[in-house]
Amino acid sequence: MAITGKIISGSGTLLVMVIVLFFSIHSPASISAAEPVIPPGPLGAPFRVAAYTEQLLLVSDYNSGSIFSVSKSDPSQVGEKFKIDGNPLAVGSLEGDILVGNSSSGSIHVYNSVGGLEYTIDGMGIDIFPSDFAMDHQLRQVFVVDSNAHEVKVYRKKSSFLVFGKNPIVTVSQRIHFHDSFGAEVLINPVGIALDQSEKVVYVSDQGDPMNDVPPIIHIFTYAGLKIDELDSTVFSDYRPRGLAYGSGKLYVTDALTCEIAVIDLITKTRLGTLGEYGSAPGQLMQPQDVSVDPSGESIYVANKRLGRIEKIVTGDLLP
Fold this sequence. Notes:
four-stranded antiparallel sheet, Neuraminidase, 8% helix
């Protein structure tokens, strides 16, 4: 057990030494018992989880540098699809292609279904930090959270390429820089994204800037980048919002600090409850990073980072 403190004076030094010595010799059993046992999971550090097929999920594993497929019915069934040259962040699929955000190269890689690299999209000479993706399959669009530029970029698929505008390879005319109705910058530390495709609404989780008393928030935009609303932390009670998922009028918000998934009713903008809790047992979470919702709404899948696994939580009677 490590204890740190700011030493103010000589007497303070002595007090800190006594405290450290006491806890080193007299560590009560209750302290060690409070720490959950962390069994090794099938994954290293799952960062993002995304829908893939009716039976499978896609998962990016930051530590191993790999993309995995995970069974929805039994998330302990894991298969490595392919490795990338770097550390993967965002992951998603569009019309058979698998998109991976690479934090090491500052780019987005597009792979075929068997892991062959087809092409790479960069940030027009500037490294991007592709933290999360959201796909509109009908419009063939990919919304990308670029945490480095503090913005959301929108790509559309044209023919067999993802383009960033009119050029057959990459241009910038389709870039959407999200802003409020007055044109001011609003994204401070964007991390996660989700879409309501029927209403053409975008949700972006923003961790804010705690050092400067800027609280976390969830921004709500139109597809054109106009901010139309927001959810502050009094609604979702989130301290460290990460990944988001949308399903049937509800927004699922991953909180890496409280180790739970907050569920928000978007009509009333009220918190319906939470899914998961801190711990290492089945259904419990430690440093969750992302969430995906089954189309039926009966289950959610959580990237359980510290436990190295995907957690399946059946909502059942847990939500009204």
